[in-house]
Amino acid sequence: MPRNLKMSEAKKSKQVQKSGDSSVNIQAGQITVGLTYEDAKAIFLDLFKSNFYQLSDIAKDTAQKRAEEITNKFLEELIKKNSQGLKNAREPDFQYALFTVQKEYARTGDKELGDILVDILVDRTKQVNRNLEQIVLNESLQTAPKLTSNQYAALSVLFVLVHTKYLRMVNFSEFSKYLERELSPFVPELVKEEACYRHLVYAGCGTLEFGSATIEAIFLERYPLLFVKPFPKKEVADLLSQEPNLSTIISPSPKDDNLVEPLFTEGEIIRKKALQLSIEASTIDNLLGIMKRHTMDSKEAKEYCIKAHPCMTILYDVWGDSLMKRMTLTSVGIAIAHANIRRVTGAQYDDLSIWIK
Length: 357
Prior knowledge:
With 357 residues, this protein is mainly α. It has three domains: 127 residues, no CATH class; 129 residues, no CATH class; 66 residues, no CATH class. Helices cover 54% and strands 8% of the residues. It has a three-stranded antiparallel beta sheet, with no helix packed on it. A hairpin with a 2-residue loop joins β1 and β2. α4 packs across α15. The longest helix has 25 residues. The radius of gyration is 26 Å and the shape is elongated.
């Protein structure tokens, strides 16, 4: 790649560039280490002007306006989320990533794509050293423009279902809120067409496996005790009499005082809670054994999911009749999904490094 990310040699600058020990050369001249917001903006816009292909006057004006729009948006988000990232303005690899964003948005003007690219690019500014996350984010900037809204939605749903776990999933009400917040914004965009998922594979966002899991199986594995049906209090009467502190682990069902249900959705959480309360491990083993006997079967779990939120009817339909159920996300697919979810829901997801190691 030529110096200063020049994409064309049609016009060669005759400018003489000189710099001191702590400066960077670009075609606009010398920039010192201490970069202000306006300094960075000038660098970034000059970068676009110097490297984008020559277009007709109308197309050129449109491209320039779009480049300025996306650059301003990026700088605004960067100041809010990682102001130290301005220092990256001097780095060739970062300039290349920025130019990718400017170029792709200048071509399309697609607001959805622009927001996703900005989110990824802000994450990119946090990666100073060349590592796997930096490489994945760079690749994601190249890949996101190759996808449609339907494909962003599919990646987002797969990411939520397969790669995340909500730690406060304690009851049906919380499950309903979770589905509303994390899945319902994306489900209406899902499609069944095979080409949608094969293109995701082509773009490097996922792979197609031979086997598949049902949605209820995923939820049962992730939140097993959420699917325990309220069971007779008399079945745990002896345990409660021996260990009164069990009342902090199980509680009366809102539907019937004669029934009880777990307050936690994982056996490991219950074991940790029991350890804190000095409850015998054998007592917890017995309690978990009782709960297991009252776990919903697959059909009941599916009905439970559909009852929790209307979006699940659509998701089950698409999942059962498309390649979606066979797809596993790559690191690039995860990065794009991560950005899209934050764009749509405003959720402050954990740092991407949790999923890309």
